[in-house]
């Protein structure tokens, strides 16, 4: 099956750390590919009508073509990673979205203060991992 897409804020150090964690767990690169929300791939894969209503959040484009955002996107990523991350995703999924998304919003509000702004829109990764990224 083709990998799913994670679209992230390319100017956010916290987001870059999250992407690096996902790559570390998804060693083979079977689950996800990555692109900044400001990139051509985001524009190409998500129609304008969908992009127009997305919150300022991480976005997962599933294999089924569904765009997931905020805490739902994070839980989906955890579930796809498997192992203990799937357990975290399951436990997090027990919390209603009406409670999860406000927590996500608080983290999103302060995320730029948690880690320094990266130098580029793609996280620094080893050359052999760069094929997982698209502009």
CATH class: Alpha Beta
SS strand fraction = 5-15%
Give the strand order, joined by hyphens, for the main sheet. 2-1-3-4
Structural class: alpha+beta
Per CATH, which architecture?
Answer: 3-Layer(aba) Sandwich
Question: Topology, please?
Answer:
Layout: E1 4-8, H1 13-25, E2 32-36, H2 40-45, H3 48-51, E3 59-61, E4 67-69, H4 70-81, H5 83-93, H6 97-114
Parallel strand pairs: 1-2
Antiparallel strand pairs: 1-3, 3-4
Descriptive overview:
With 135 residues, this protein is an alpha+beta fold. The protein has a single domain (4-115), classed as Glutaredoxin, CATH 3.40.30. Helix content is 47%, strand content 12%. The chain contains six helices and four strands. The protein has helices at 13-25, 40-45, 48-51, 70-81, 83-93, 97-114, and strands at residues 4-8, 32-36, 59-61, 67-69. Strands 2-1-3-4 form a four-stranded mixed sheet. Strand 1 (4-8), helix 1 and strand 2 form a beta-alpha-beta unit. The model has no long low-confidence stretch (mean pLDDT 87).
Tags for this model:
4-stranded mixed β-sheet; alpha+beta; 135 residues; single chain
Entry summary:
The protein has 6 helices and 4 strands. With 135 residues, it is an alpha+beta fold.
């Amino acid at each position: 099956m083709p990998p799913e897409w994670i679209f992230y804020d390319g100017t956010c150090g916290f987001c870059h750390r999250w992407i690096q964690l996902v790559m570390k767990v998804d060693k083979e690169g079977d689950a996800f590919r990555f692109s900044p929300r400001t990139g051509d791939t985001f524009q190409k894969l998500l129609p304008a009508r969908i992009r127009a209503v997305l919150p300022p959040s991480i976005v997962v484009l599933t294999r089924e073509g569904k765009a997931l955002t905020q805490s739902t996107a994070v839980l989906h990523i955890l579930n796809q990673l498997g192992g203990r991350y799937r357990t975290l995703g399951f436990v997090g999924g027990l919390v209603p979205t009406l409670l999860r998304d406000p927590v996500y919003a608080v983290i999103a509000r302060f995320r730029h203060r948690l880690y320094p702004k990266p130098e580029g829109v793609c996280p620094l990764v080893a050359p052999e991992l760069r094929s997982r990224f698209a502009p």
